[in-house]
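Figure 3 (text version): structure tokens given as input.
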């Protein structure tokens, strides 16, 4: 497992209960804490990790003997870490992304980066409504392992599952990754609604129309609308948009309360992927000719072109057919 953040550590701890697992953390102090105290307080508080989980700050050591490589670093560092790890990666082993974002300069999904840097390795994405703290505390959850080779998906499903962590297979990698990336932007929108205290009806409307937007872009990029109605789309969106544990929702909520974006991000020790994803999503929408009104407004708010207090003025315009954009 590459990445000692909240989700990477959680998945590594889950796997370590049934298989030998080694976690790479960039910070040697984090690796030492995992080994000696079986915690990662910076990201997961006092939650206990599997005592069998081992950690290292040496990247080469982490990947040299791996039968499965899982990458759980933020999107802006994904390529760099994978390039550094590549010389030590054994041939043909599957590589799984946990990252729900898009590369800013190239607009690539994470599995596309895997295929570019490690050709010949099956590339997969694990995605769904997975809040790390809840899963680590033993609450039931479900996820999706997405890869075009369903035989590989079945093998990864067996590695990643646990008694209370249910993993489904899906061949629609595009739909799963687009859903995981766009839901972060929509979660910022619902967070703004919370900060403005606009009411549950408004939040429900934004959530529903946000689902319509991520479905439109996902389908335009080659995804299956059924995927976006499942765990990787609607399920992930609901969890991220509604839970107080969600980083992206938190950013939106604080924006809705009038706080500057730089101040909000400056106090966070974890990445809110939706902040960086918004601009990338708008460029993808332009290229594919898709209208994304909610994502567009959130992009403007994040760019400082519109105050968060004005984010919901679009609700006052006359809507068309529900199946239409807007």
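Below: residues designed for each position.
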């Amino acid at each position: 497992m590459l990445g000692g953040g909240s989700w990477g550590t959680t998945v590594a701890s889950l796997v370590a209960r049934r298989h030998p697992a080694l976690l790479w953390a960039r910070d040697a102090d984090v690796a030492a804490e995992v080994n000696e105290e079986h915690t990662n307080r910076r990201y997961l508080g006092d939650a206990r990790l599997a005592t069998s989980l081992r950690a290292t700050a040496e990247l080469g050591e982490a990947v040299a003997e791996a039968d499965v490589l899982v990458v759980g670093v933020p999107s802006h560092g994904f390529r760099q870490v994978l390039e550094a790890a590549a010389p030590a990666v054994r041939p043909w082993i599957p590589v799984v992304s946990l990252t729900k974002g898009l590369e800013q300069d190239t607009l690539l999904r994470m599995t596309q980066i895997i295929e570019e840097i490690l050709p010949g390795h099956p590339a997969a994405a694990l995605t769904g409504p997975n809040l790390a703290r809840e899963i680590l505390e033993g609450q039931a959850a479900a996820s999706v392992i997405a890869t075009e080779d369903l035989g590989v998906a079945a093998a990864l499903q067996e590695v990643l599952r646990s008694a209370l962590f249910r993993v489904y297979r899906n061949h629609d990698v595009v739909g799963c990754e687009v859903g995981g990336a766009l839901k972060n932007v929509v979660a910022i929108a619902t967070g703004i609604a919370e900060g403005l205290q606009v009411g549950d009806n408004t939040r429900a409307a934004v959530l529903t129309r946000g689902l319509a937007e991520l479905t439109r872009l996902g389908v335009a990029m080659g995804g299956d609308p059924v995927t976006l109605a499942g765990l990787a789309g609607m399920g992930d969106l609901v969890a991220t948009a509604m839970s107080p544990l969600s980083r992206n929702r938190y950013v939106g909520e604080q924006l809705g309360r009038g706080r500057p974006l730089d101040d909000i991000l400056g106090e966070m020790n974890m990445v809110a992927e939706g902040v960086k994803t918004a601009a990338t999503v708008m460029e993808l929408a332009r290229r594919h000719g898709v209208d994304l009104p909610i994502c567009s407004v959130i992009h403007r708010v994040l760019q400082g072109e519109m105050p968060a207090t004005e984010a919901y003025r679009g609700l006052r315009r006359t809507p068309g057919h529900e199946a239409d954009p807007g």
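DSSP finds 16 helices and seven strands in the chain.
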